[in-house]
Structures are given as structure tokens and as C-alpha cells.
Amino acid sequence: MLFLCILFGLVLLTSLFLLCIIYYYSINFLKVLLLHMKIERSKNAARNVVFSWILKLYSLLVPFAIRTIMIHTIGMQYLGLNSLFSSVLQVLNLAELGVGNALVFSMYKPIADDDGTTICALMRLYRKYYRIIGLVILVVGLAITPFVPKLISGTVPDDMNVYVLYLMNLMATVITYWLFAYKNCLLSAHQRGDVASKITLIVSTIQYSLQIAVLFLLKNYYWYVLVLIAFGIVGNIVTAIVVDKMYPHYHAVGDLPKEQVKEINKKVRDLFTAKIGSVVVDSADTIVISAFLGLTALAIYQNYFYIITAVSGFIAVIYSSCTAGIGNSIITETQEKNFNDLKKFTLIISWLSGFCMCCLACLYQPFMQLWVGKGNMLGYSYVICFCTYFYIRQIHSLLCLYKDSAGIWHKDRFRPLVTALTNLVMNLIMVQFWGLYGVLLSTVISILLVGMPWLYSNLFTVLFKFNPTKYILQTVLYTVISVVSCVICAVICNKFIVFDSLIATLIVRGVICCIIPNAIYLVCYRKTAEFTSSLALVNNLTKGKIKFLAKYAQ
User: What is the DSSP-derived secondary structure letter of residue 59?
Assistant: First the structure.
């Protein structure tokens, strides 16, 4: 209990600290904006990256604390149930995929032209679509209610009514679509994501604090979900009030020409299929584990997967920050220049992903033992599977970054669907023979054998228009070097760096992971053209502030 109290205090202090930082930068940003209406793009990008990392840290730290408190107060089964309902509702939310992005994209031109009539009509269409989506989710969600217990293998706590809890989570999702959610499009289209992030940050901080208090004081999962529902409503209302004050001249009125509506619907379909893959893959894994292996197994799996998601989230900030720049380069630069940039990014991501994979292989188990205890851990063979999945996911994300930047959505529309269906079928078969191994391996195999070859084909057929064999072989070489580095680190750490103190073990292993893989990469890559040009790229991004880069970059 003392540990939980200390953790709670640290979470609150960290939250207040981050809020102060964000408030400070927000005020200064507004001052600069008023004085200088045009800000240098590179400075904007750097600010966005820093702000995104702060938000990412916050969004990982606090839910991590809540998971920890939930494990120690109400138990693993409730954590597993929470993960299951989140995945089920994520699948139901597939109805939204593509709608928001398509409508926001459609707002860019009328905003640039100051065409208020079209913007208002788009808002009305957005509101209409969101109300329909909310209704669809409600109807489908209610229709599958009788089958919810079948998604859970084994027993559930006596005080747990899965029907009531599921319906509460369902309503929390539906309400977000019916209460002013459509007004978020104005913030996104005006590139004021910072405002939306600040609202989310403040509302979430209060929500998390109350949920932690509920777990400590009441130890009741029903009240935990009620807080979630209440603040889903509060968040939407606050956003609506802020948007109305910022853009009082925009209202959801008017109609769009039929041809424009058809064009928007086409974008929605393409974006839907482009995004469905990752959602179905992650959700299917969770649902299959719950249905075949039980809530406790799901909770333990999700604890490990949470770490993967956390590390991937920080790398994803790099991807999101580069999307606009890569998109601009694809339009304005030569094919050769863009391909050379892809090779640079491949080296950087391979290096970064390989380093992270080494850290995961060496630090996973002592960290999990410190966090959840030996009784809630998986074997080291599962760690190998998670590391493999992590590395492949990063290379796949890099290719998707270029695919999205080039706008290759229509040609790529069937790939995510086929990949997701392949993963689902393999999940259902392999989980019955190999349990969690089957779930992890099916995801890795579906990406390696279906998703990535198809993605390579689309990317090099549409964008680069030449045979990708040489590039693939180079990527394979990077992968081999990363695997070798990971094996060396893992052998050294697991055989020789084992102390009575878990904290000491983590520190020493962390130092080794910082030295050995980076030394190997430096020896292997230092004479390659991609390495030198990558140093130049990073040096340019950091404006020459890192002396080592400035010295060795071209």
C-alpha cells in the first residue's frame, strides 16, 4: 500500500509539472503568434515534436500508474476485462475510421479561401455522419451483448456482471459521437491540435485522479467506468465551448453539392481500408486471447504489450513529424532524391529499432518482475516473440509512412484487409495449439508474408517505379546486424548481469545496452554512404548543435 501511495503522489506531481510546462509553452506560443503571424516551418516542427513527446510521456505514465494500481487493488481479471472491452469497442469504432480524416482534409481548401459557407456545410455533414456512426455502434453493440460472455474463457469474479459492465463501456463510446464530437474537425483543420491536446490533458488529469481515488478508496470497477463515462461527456462539452469561442462564425448549417459529397465518401472508403488493418490485428489478438485463454492471461499479455506500445509510441512521434516533409519532398523532388531519403530513414529506423530491441531483450524481464512480480510474468521465449514483433512493426511503419505521404491509399486499400483477415484466421487456429505463442506468431507471419511484400510492391510500383530487390536485401542486412547485436547483449546480460537488486540489474544492463549495440552499428555502418548522409540529415534537423554530428556529417 505504501508503494501505491508513493506512486500516486509521483503521478500527481508529474501531472502538475507537465501541465505547468505545457501552459508556459502555450502562453509563449500565443505571444509569438500574435507578434509574428508567420513562423519558420522548421521551428514549428521542432516545437511540435517536443510538445508531442511531452504529451506522449504523460499519456503513457499515468495509464501505467493506473494499471499498476488496478493490479494491486482489484486484480488482474478486472484489468483483463478492461482490455477486452476496449478491444471490442475499438472494433466497433471501425465505423469511424476515415470519416474524420476525410472531412478534415476537405476543409483545408475552404479555410484557405475563407469560404465559411462550405465550412459550415462540411460541419453539418460531419455531425450527420457522427450521429449515424454512434447509432450504428449502439445497434451493433447491443446486438452482440448476448455473446459477450462467450468472449471470456474461464471464470469471472462473483461481483462482476459482464453485461452491465459491457453496456456501460458501450454507452461511454456512443456518447462521444452524439455530443459535439464533430466540432473537433475545426481544430484539426485549422492545425490547432495543440488546443485539443490541452483540453484532453486537463480533462484527463482530473479523470485519472478520480479513477485512482476510486481504485484506492472504493475498489469498485463500476465506479471506475462511471468516471470514464462522465468525463467523456465533460471532454466533449468543454471542447464544444472552446471551439464556439474560437470560431463563433461557424455553425453546422447548409448543404454540399452532391459531387463533393461523393468525393468525400470515396476518400472515406479508401482511408477506412487503409487504417482497418492495425485496428483489427491488435483487437483480434486481445479478443482471441480472452476467448481461448481467459482474462488473467489477457492481462499478463497486455502488460507486456503495453511496453511495446510505449516504446513504439515515441518512435511514432518521429513518423508523424516527418509525414508533411516527406509528402512535400515526394511532390517537389526527384525520384532519386526521394529514394535516397528512404534509404537514410531506413538506416536510422533500423538503428533505432535495433537499439530498442536490445533494450527490450535485456530489460523486459527484470522490469516486469519489479512491476508486477514473478507470478505475473511470461517466459523469456515470449520476450523473444515480442522483440521480433516490435522490430518488424517499426520497419512496416516506415514503409506505411512513405505510402501515406505519397497518398497511395486507393491502390493499397485491400492490403490491410487481407493482412487482418489472414492474422485473424491464423489466430483462431494457432491459439488452440500454441496458446500465446500462436497469437504472437500469427501477427508476425501475417505482416511478414502478406502485409510487407504487398506494401513493397505498391510502394515501388507507384512511387519509385523500379525493382525493390536491392533495397530489400539492404534492409535484411540491417536486420541481421540488429539481431546479432541483440543476441550478444542478451547473452551477456542474462548470463552475467544478474544481481539481487532488480534496480541495480536494470541500471547495469541499461548501460550495456547503450554501449554494445551502438558500437556494433557504428563499426558496421560508419563507412556506408547512407550513414554519412544520415548524419548530415540529423545534423540539419538539430541545426548543427551536436558537435559530433557537425564534425562527421558531410
Answer: H
- Whether 107 is in a domain gets the answer no
For residue 455, what are the domain limits? Answer: 283-501
Q: How many CA atoms lie within 13 A of 479 on its CB side?
A: 16
Between CA 67 and CA 69 the distance in angstroms is 6
Q: Which residues contact 234 (CB under 8 A, 6 or more apart)?
A: 203
Task: Quick: pLDDT tens for 71-114.
Answer: 888 888 888 888 888 888 777 766 566 677 677 777 878 887 88
How deeply is 521 buried, as exposed, middle or buried, from its count of CB atoms within 10 A (0-12, 13-18, 19+)?
buried
Residues 111 and 40: their CA atoms lie apart, in Å, by 21
Domain annotation covers residue 308 = yes
Query: Read out DSSP for 175-209?
Result: HHHHSSGGGHHHHHHTT-HHHHHHHHHHHHHHHHH
Angle at 131 between CA 125 and CA 134, to 5 degrees: 140
Answer yes or no: are the C-beta atoms of 273 and 414 closer than 8 Å: yes
The CB density around residue 438, as the number of other CB atoms within 10 Å, is 21
Q: For every residue of 277-341, which 3-state class applies, written as one string? A: HHHHHHHHHHHHHHHHHCHHHHHHHHHHHHHHHHHHHHHHHHHHHHHHHHHHHHHHCCHHHHHHH
Provide the Cα torsion 337, 343, 349, 351; round to 10°: -130
Considering Cα of 451, then 457, then 458, then 464, what sign does the dihedral take?
positive
Question: 33-61 pLDDT, tens per residue?
Answer: 333 333 344 444 455 555 566 777 777 78
Tell me whether residue 465 is in a domain.
yes
b/e burial code for range 141-161 (CB count within 10 A of at least 16 → b):
beeeeeebeebbeeebeeebe
Give the single-character DSSP code of 410: S
- Does residue 260 fall inside a structural domain? no
Percent of the chain with pLDDT over 90: 25
Contacts made by residues 28-35, CB under 8 angstroms, sequence distance 24+: 29/194
The total domain count for the chain is: 1
Separation between Cα atoms, residue 17 and residue 19, nearest integer Å: 5
Q: Are residues 299 and 80 in contact, defined by beta-carbon separation less than 8 angstroms? A: yes
Cβ atoms of 175 and 235 within 8 Å: the answer is: no
**Total H helices, total E strands in the chain:** 20, 0
d(CA 196, CA 239): 7
Cell 464530437 locates to: 181
Q: Which residue has the cell 482490455?
A: 83
Fill in the amino acid letter for 131.
Answer: R
